[in-house]
Amino acid sequence: MIQHFQFKPLFENNLLPGWAISFYYKQQQYKAEYKKDGKIVWLSAKPSSEEQEKVEKMIHELMLFHVYD
């Protein structure tokens, strides 16, 4: 489960899409950029290949809830 999920706009103009996100997963911190098309660009180490799809799905759900609500 993702913990301490945070996001903030990449641009001063909040109408421009793109967010910096950070969170903890399995006691490791991750940082990434969430692009307007839903692409995730990892700025830190990525989750393992087995976990990456699951983590990205959780991120998409959180962004839909918090940003696109």
From TrEMBL:
Stored Pfam families: DUF5342 (PF17277)
Superkingdom to which the source organism belongs: Bacteria
Protein name in UniProt: YheE family protein
Native source organism of the sequence: Ureibacillus galli
Taxonomic lineage of the native organism: Bacteria, Bacillati, Bacillota, Bacilli, Bacillales
